[in-house]
Amino acid sequence: MRIGLIGVGRIGAFHAATLKGLPAVGQVVVADADASRAELTAKELGAEFAPDVPALLASRLDGLVIAAATSAHAELIAAGVAAGIPTFCEKPVALDLAATRQVVELVEGSDVPVHIGFQRRFDTGYQAAAEAVRDGKLGFVHHIRANTNDAFPPPAGYIPTSGGFFRDCLVHDFDIIRYVTGREVVTVYATGANRGEPFFGEYGDVDAASALLTLDDNTFVAVSGTRYNAAGHDVRMELLGSEGSLAVGLDDHTALRSAEPGVTFPAGVPHTTFMDRFRPAYVAELTAFTEVVAGTREVPCTVRDALQAFRVADACELSRHENRVVALEEIGR
To answer: Does the model's pTM come out above 0.70?
Structure first.
């Protein structure tokens, strides 16, 4: 199959290389707002080059992967749907909730499959945790702890269009909490601070945040994250149940060290980026998309899933600004 890809920045180039290695993909065609960058990436990967998005969409594609800037996601999803091309788009669907709802209405009013990229759903650890919860192996889950700690902050130019820490970073935790538990968030209380580079505060953002979520079965979830975790990229989840407990991301690459004498675990080299941490999950995710394109699989992460995670992120941002508990009902449907 022929897969088109829009956006050849860091994650886009990574996706293009991954797609080139998938057995189901015969050719990858790349485009970018910077045509020269797309042409260079095409030469490096042995892919085809399209000078712009219209040319890409007209190049007889079987599927479309969107890895462009967040501000372009909604428009590009609409273009893919209009062209009748099965589409994969990196999260988030759009920069704000209203635009996200518009995309959901557009996609759900069509018969074009649209798969949103929350790669943690394809990580074997999170999948095992979801299975354990479904099978009742942990009894009833009463507490969950989830964290996303980046090893180093993004550049200042990224922040104005990122949507903020909750929407850009912790939204992954909000999605995977729904996936693992099968439950919905009903209330949030969130806070954040900026203790690093001043540019976060200049754009109204934070570089560290925490949130307490209550799920619809009264499970409590503590979510935290930071842009400054020099020990390494650290993404984990702990599930505490009445009959047992389970941890995702606890292995020899965990960016954490014990203070106890004689303890050498974890002994490996910590991950430094999210691409290191989730490389197999990204391969599995794009493999799943090729199955969606082939019509052999239902969309595993829908635009409505993305909307629900975005609602939680919006509730956290409102809670941070107003210093109060926010019910998800306030954020709409």
So the answer is: yes
